[in-house]
TrEMBL record:
The lineage of its organism: Bacteria, Pseudomonadati, Pseudomonadota, Alphaproteobacteria, Sphingomonadales. This is Ferrochelatase. Pfam families: Ferrochelatase. The gene is hemH. It comes from Novosphingobium barchaimii LL02. Its EC number is 4.98.1.1. PROSITE patterns: FERROCHELATASE. It comes from the Bacteria.
Length: 341
């Protein structure tokens, strides 16, 4: 595809500079209890994430959770930390660099995190200060949820509220059923499964969970996940006939009922009922992170093997691979159409 550039008949807006801000969830600055505590305090204080009235939640958050969870989570982060830092941050940065190459110099690509660093307000201000007065904000969540996509929009609103001179914004819609996304997943998963040194009986699609109550209140997240799963399974039935595709939800937090079936329970029941070889993919995560690398690949494996499973592969997410980057380029170019840099 050609670089994004001003068409000859629109020279009057050719000086407007266009930026793209990729946004993901966020991650601690270090795999230490203190850094994880700072991160969790910000994350779990977001009313979009924990929808319990503050008067009831604050004592629980500060009394129990922030006293006990940081050490446990820091251990999990320690097991997956890399020389480039947290996998989620390192991969998001790589996606931004890759997209910059694909889009060329006509557009500036940067990245930010909803929680922790680099923050959305700091990167938005930096873009404006550098003269980028049109910014496409792209939350890297294929499936919409109040806890993720809407929370990014809230933070953007807060940031704009403090800016005297704001850039013009566009936002990337959720892309859970977009042919570019489903096609990228199909290609990536089919290639990775074919390259395994065993033939899986089951492909488990594990999405991040949400409280069941959010579905009842009208959050589309569950429906978006189910539609992604259905479309991907239809494609894979052609590419990998004979492979059973199942869907589950991981990372339950707290005591409330979460979306089911739970990934851990699914791994256990599959192994107990005779499945020996399994591949897991996490299509809702645009980048590998503690949830895929530790919860699935370390703890999930332990659960599956303890119940009798013998082979388990967790496939890398789309990350900054060719399929994922081609998808991002397609999605972003579509939103930039008309915003010539
Ligand atoms: C109330 C709890 C949580 C809700 C609701 C929730 C929704 C949600 N999260 C993601 C994506 C990610 N979550 C990640 C980590 C993570 N999530 C929670 C809790 C809730 N998430 C916690 C406490 C943590 C931190 C790790 C831990 O202590 O267990 C991550 C990975 C971050 C990283 O640093 O690697 C991602 C990505 C989605 C998509 C989602 C709702 C749809
Ligand atoms: Fe989460
Ligand atoms: Fe987790």
């Amino acid at each position: 595809m050609p670089p994004v550039s001003a068409p000859a008949d629109h020279p009057q807006i050719a000086t407007g500079k266009v930026g793209v801000l990729l946004v993901n969830l966020g991650t601690p600055d270090a795999p230490t209890p203190a850094a994880v505590r700072r991160y969790l305090a910000e994350f779990l204080s977001d009313r979009r994430v924990v929808e319990i009235p503050a008067i009831a939640w604050k004592p629980i958050l500060h009394g129990i959770i922030l006293r006990t969870r940081p050490a446990k989570s820091a251990h999990a982060y320690g097991q997956v930390w890399t020389e480039q830092g947290s996998p989620l941050a390192a991969i998001t940065a790589a996606q931004a660099r890759g997209l910059q190459v694909l889009l060329g110099d006509g557009v500036k690509v940067d990245w930010a995190m909803r929680y922790g660093n680099p923050s959305i307000p700091s990167r938005l201000q930096a873009m404006k200060d550098a003269g980028y007065d049109r910014v496409l904000v792209a939350p890297l969540y294929p499936q919409y949820s109040g806890a993720t996509t809407a929370s990014v929009m809230d933070r953007l609103g807060e940031a704009l509220g403090k800016m005297r001179w704001q850039p013009a914004l566009r936002t990337l819609p959720p892309y859970y059923d977009d042919p570019a996304y489903i096609g990228a997943l199909e290609e990536d998963v089919a290639t990775q499964v074919a390259a395994l040194d065993f033939v899986p009986e089951v492909l488990l699609l594990s999405f991040h969970g949400m409280p069941q109550r959010t579905l009842e209140l009208g959050d589309p997240y569950h429906c978006h996940c189910r539609k992604t799963a259905r479309l991907l399974a239809q494609r894979l039935a052609v590419r990998l006939p004979g492979l059973r595709v199942e869907t589950s939800f991981q990372s339950r937090f707290g005591r409330a009922k979460w979306l089911e079936p739970a990934t851990e329970a699914t791994l256990e029941s599959l192994a107990s009922s005779g499945t020996r070889r399994i591949a897991i993919t996490a299509p809702g995560f645009s980048a590998d992170c503690v949830e895929t690398l530790e919860e699935l690949a370390i703890r999930g494996r332990e659960v599956f093997e303890a119940a009798g499973g013998t082979r388990l592969a967790v496939l890398p997410c789309l990350n900054d691979g060719t399929n994922g980057m081609a998808m991002l380029e397609t999605l972003v170019r579509r939103e930039l159409a008309g915003w010539w840099a």
